[in-house]
Amino acid sequence: MVLITVASPGPGVLMTLDNAIACGWRTAMYGVAGLAVGAALMAGLSSAGVGLLVRSSPALFTTMKYCGVGYLLYLSCKAWNRQPSPSAHGPRPQGSESVGGWGLLVRGVLLQTSNPKALLFFLSILPQMVEGKNAQGSSADRLIIGIATYCVALLLIHATYAGAAAKARTWLATPFASRLLSRVSAVVFAGFAVTMLMFQL
Length: 201
Known about the structure:
With 201 residues, this protein is mainly alpha-helical. The protein has helices at 2-7, 11-23, 25-47, 50-56, 58-81, 101-113, 116-130, 139-167, 175-198. Helix 2 (11-23) crosses helix 8 (139-167), helix 3 (25-47) runs parallel beside helix 6 and helix 4 (50-56) crosses helix 5 (58-81).
């Protein structure tokens, strides 16, 4: 179930693909690390009872949801306005967006932590990790192992996505293809924002 969840198309996968095509595999991995850190934070908050608090508080859930929607729309605008580079390996044109690895890491963390659905997801799956029939060791140990397993799976799967996307950089080096990709990414990010907006407890 963890592998299916991590590999399923979503904002995180789109961010990884977008980063890899724009910046290359190595730099995109900072964003992937940010997604893993954000997932660990959300899992920790959920295990600490924040997930139950969000589920029982419509106002808090709605606030988190609108924060997530706003951030996805921000990413959509960034992708739409991104200037195409003349070469996948050449310098970017003056005035184009330049985001370093640490910037991508922060974006990954923000993407994960601004999504209330992540809290509810971990709220539903963590008890299964802790209270399985064949579970061994203390609850805390099983919880840590479960969260670590999820984060490692995220890193490996998204690294694969990023590697595949980075190989397409040569084909996408033309201004037309680069601009088209930016527009598609922007529309998909906006679509995820609309989907999150419609999500209810």
